[in-house]
Design goal:
globular; Jelly Rolls; about 900 residues; alpha+beta; 8-stranded parallel sheet; 9-stranded antiparallel sheet; 47 strands
Length: about 900
């Protein structure tokens, strides 16, 4: 038996091999067998979560699976299967199973037993009833002879362990296998599916990247990422340049270890597909630890890097590099460490098991920092076997993120969340800080002697530290003057600690490891942004790039609703175009630093997501945001096969990438002037004076749960219109001599009465009463929102009319010429999407999650081109892979116009003139 990750395909050869996977009738080149149909078995015939006739179980292959429950005995369940191998050669072996439950041994014939553990990369998730799910897992590449053979499995369990397991099916494939739910190679998901009236199914073959595609943005990227050297800041510090000084913006996605851990052909397909869609940055956001504790949350071993996961990261970085895609590395998140005791830190065994994640300690505990830097050195100096370069020296590693979503100013900063030993360590450091600053503790406490804390031990060198609530305006209104002075000292101390860690990390990366790319600190929020957001961002200025996270997260409630979509949950569909206060797109930028949003998303379930990419591209252009990474890409092939909470690989999101990525990266909307600027002094910030220019914290549901009950996530703004960032740049500076505040009169740009806003040149307009947003630039003209509320959107070179209730329609030049001169124009359109079979009541209760294929409301729209300078040669409807179809697109000349009626079932149309 041959083991390995099937790394034989280079990029060119691998992509040629991919064509074989898309052939409609692959012939006898795969063997598929149902797990629930063994020749022999000691598995139970029936368990409490065996499949039945209820909705949802039909998404299992054959409508059933092999299950086990209860507690393992000395004889764990086993099964065997008699197979007929059609031809000799190498086969990929895959299993579709219930999550990480049911580790197992397996073998062919009399070969040695192999083991599939629990800590495994999963892909192609399909939610099932009873809170179950089924995922595909790559097992091995095996060498088999033609003819009959036996395949055996046995659950790899010790007596007393949880014996829950579910096995759906297995496949042996001679060609690279791309999981698509229950469907065998060559099968179409739409076959046999009843599509509702007024909808169409999107069920195209896997993209094989043919040369005759008419829509491929790979050429926007460099030949390989880092061709001209590491990324760097522009001379004024406000933006990002390639190594040769060329300005660049990044349209990116998040990927996890699940995607990085797939066989080579899937990793190569993913990176090539992303480049085709216009992506030039990925953010690898996943733990790299051995047994990271997420599987069952019971890990007790020391936290150490897993060489297998590091190699998978190396593989992904190398594959992305060949497609001109840079990697942003997010590798440390306290949530990924189930117990701070695994870092060798004292006291975590005194906390409840679910409260032991080491939030905050990285900023003040020397032992935690030593572990962090030792791991960083190992991670960044280990040679990448796919490139020969350690990550520290690879210019394709465009950015390193030091710490994800942690700080000393959010609601998690609370004495009850840390062991007493760690809080005491922090308070002793506070005492040391006060002595160093004031000469003695007595001198330090003199201005606020009446401010008491239960933990104060002045003679013993310990000064109590207040929790995050004391650094809010609510506390400020209630505390005495002495207490406020004490809190101000604390804020200065905590800010110095946090910034000091970032400064130390930069020194290690630059001076010790020789890393020359960009660095970001973190991306988190403060309990009270009005008082502490500027302090938080000031600590980030120790690094290069200022980062933040944000989600458009409409109401979604029920079990596990913060991170998953399940039957029985309830939801409301909401459109961002009606709620400008909600999208996560407003930035308050720090002068001298590029700005990015490394996690951004429109969560599901929500019928109204067609506006997401347009709003994002407009915000990037107008505000000068240098990078956005959408959260999160889960697709094995071209689109998600189930409804994920953070769904990205869907028609309304990734399907709209081409025109939007092109517009944002090309800068079709000119960057707006600064409309609000705050010249801030850190001394004033530490004294709780706060800032006026603050926008709402757009948290995802998972981390919003950390907000203290009853607390405000953002404050009332007295002198600053929070919509300012939609019509211009909002910026701040820290301690810059001679700098002054600036605020332009925006009455002509933002009209609260009519609920409309626009840029000074009308290139971007937003009517949030009607729920329509439009873009009008020489190269891109577009609209998104509730077309039902307008007779048409009238732009400089064209008019958009649609009978659809909601959607997005974009017209953009593909040859970099203005639309009125362009010889090749892309029209992309999308409406409302759903998975086939998704069912919910009128009140929003989910009854069925559905499954493949994706279905969309038919497109009912036309584009009228005004006074065209060139005649049309061809108008071509494309499939989702950018290939020409035989669909007829009607267009006709009317007076001085040409009207194109868009095809009802195609997202892309090309005009050649």
């Amino acid at each position: 038996m041959k083991r390995g990750r099937a790394l034989a395909w280079s990029v060119a050869v691998g992509l040629a091999g991919l064509a074989g996977a898309a052939v409609a009738d692959p012939g006898p080149t795969f063997v598929w067998w149902e797990a629930e149909s063994p020749n022999t078995s000691t598995f139970p015939e029936q368990t409490w979560f065996s499949a039945n006739d209820d909705p949802g179980w039909q998404y299992l292959s054959g409508g059933a699976w092999l299950t086990s429950t209860g507690i393992a005995t000395a004889d764990p369940p086993q099964a065997s299967y008699e197979l007929d191998i059609p031809e000799a050669g190498e086969y990929q072996l895959w299993v579709r199973k219930f999550w990480r439950h049911g580790p197992m041994h397996y073998r062919f014939g009399e070969a040695a037993w192999q083991t599939l553990g629990r800590d495994i990369p999963l892909v192609d998730r399909q939610r099932l009833p009873k809170d179950a799910e089924v995922d595909w897992v790559y097992l091995d590449t095996v060498e088999l002879s033609a003819g009959e053979t036996t395949f055996e499995i046995q659950l790899a369990l010790q007596p007393g362990e949880d014996a829950v397991a579910g096995l759906d099916c297995f496949v042996l494939s001679r060609e690279p296998f791309f999981p698509r739910g229950k469907f065998k190679p060559g099968e179409r998901a739409a076959d046999g599916v009843e599509v509702p009236d007024g909808w169409f199914a999107l069920d195209e073959p896997l993209d094989t990247f043919r040369d005759d595609t008419l829509l491929d943005l790979r050429h926007l990227n460099e030949p390989e990422a880092g061709t001209h050297g590491p990324l760097r800041k522009s001379p004024d510090g406000n933006s990002i340049h390639l190594g040769d000084g060329t300005p660049v913006r990044f349209w990116g996605v998040n990927l996890s270890a699940q995607e990085a851990g797939q066989p080579d052909h899937i990793v190569q397909h993913t990176t090539r597909r992303l480049a085709k869609l216009g992506v030039n940055m990925i953010r690898h956001h996943s733990p790299l630890w051995i047994d990271n504790g997420l599987t069952y949350g019971t890990a007790t071993s020391p936290v150490t890097l897993d060489p297998v996961k590091v190699e998978r990261l190396h593989h992904l970085v190398a594959a992305a590099k060949t497609q001109g895609i840079y990697t942003n590395l997010s590798w440390y998140f306290p949530l990924w460490i189930n117990d701070g005791g695994r870092l060798g830190l004292a006291g975590y065994d005194t906390l409840p098991a679910d409260k032991r994640k080491p939030f905050a300690v990285l900023f003040f505990n020397d032992k935690a920092q030593q572990h962090y830097f030792d791991a960083m050195r190992e991670l960044l100096t280990t040679p990448n076997p796919h490139t020969g370069l350690p990550l520290a020296n690879d210019p394709a590693l465009g950015l390193i993120e030091l710490c994800n979503e942690d700080n000393l100013f959010f609601w998690t900063f609370d004495e009850k969340n840390l062991p007493a030993a760690q809080w005491e360590l922090l308070e002793r450091k506070f005492a040391d800080h006060l002595k160093q600053k004031h000469g003695s503790l007595e001198a330090a406490r003199k201005p606020w002697r009446k401010a008491k804390h239960d933990n104060d031990d002045w003679d013993g060198g310990r000064v109590g530290v207040y929790d995050a609530w004391h650094m809010t305006r609510e506390a400020k209104d209630k505390l005495s003057n002495h207490e406020l002075k004490r809190v101000a000292e604390q804020v200065e101390f905590l800010a110095g600690l946090q910034r000091g860690f970032y400064e130390k990390a930069v020194r290690v990366l630059r001076d010790e490891l020789g890393y020359e790319g960009l660095i970001s600190a973190s991306n988190w929020y403060a309990a009270d942004p009005t008082l502490m957001d500027a302090v938080e961002r000031w600590t980030y200025t120790a690094t290069d790039v200022i980062d933040q996270h944000g989600y458009f997260n409409p109401k979604h409630e029920g079990d596990a609703a913060s991170y998953s979509v399940r039957v029985g949950q309830t939801f409301d569909s909401r459109a961002a175009v009606l709620l400008p206060q909600r999208p996560p797109l407003r930035t308050n930028q720090v002068e001298g630093h590029p700005q990015m949003i490394s996690e951004m998303g429109w969560t599901t379930p929500n019928h109204y997501r067609a506006d997401a990419t347009l709003l994002t591209a407009a915000a990037m252009s107008l505000q000068g945001i240098d990078a956005v990474n959408f959260f999160i890409w889960n697709a094995t092939g071209d689109f998600d096969t189930t409804m994920n909470k953070f769904a990205l690989a869907t028609p309304t999101m990734a399907g709209m990438f081409p025109a939007m990525a092109l517009m944002a990266r090309r800068g079709d909307l000119p960057e707006a002037d600064i409309v609000v600027h705050e010249a801030l002094r850190t001394e004033n910030l530490f004294n709780l004076e706060g800032t006026a220019a603050v926008t709402d914290a757009a948290l995802d549901g998972f981390r919003a749960a950390d907000v203290q009950p009853g607390a405000k996530m953002a404050g009332d703004l007295e002198t600053f219109d929070p919509f300012s960032a939609y019509v211009g740049r909002v910026s701040r500076s820290f301690d810059q001599p001679g700098d002054a505040d600036l605020q332009l009169n925006l009455n002509g740009s933002i009209n609260r009465l009519s609920q409309q806003m626009r840029t000074h040149n009308d290139s971007f307009q937003w009517d949030w009463k009607a729920g329509i947003v439009s873009i009008d630039s020489p190269h891109t003209q577009a609209a998104a929102g509730f077309f039902v509320n307008t007779p048409g959107v009238f732009l400089s070179n064209l008019s958009i009319r649609s009978n659809n209730y909601f959607g997005q329609i974009t017209v953009t030049s593909l040859d970099d010429k203005p639309i009125d001169q362009s010889r090749k124009i892309l029209i992309q359109a999308v409406t409302e999407e759903s998975l086939s079979g998704f069912l919910a009541t009128r009140s929003g209760k989910i009854n069925s999650l559905g499954g493949q294929p994706w279905i969309l409301k038919k497109i009912e729209a036309s584009i009228e081109f005004h006074n065209p300078k060139h005649l049309f040669k061809r108008v071509i409807a494309l499939d989702i892979n950018g290939l020409p179809t035989n669909d007829i697109v009607t267009w006709e000349a009317e007076n001085n116009s040409i009207v194109v009626t868009l095809p009802q079932n195609r997202l892309y149309t090309i005009i050649e003139r």
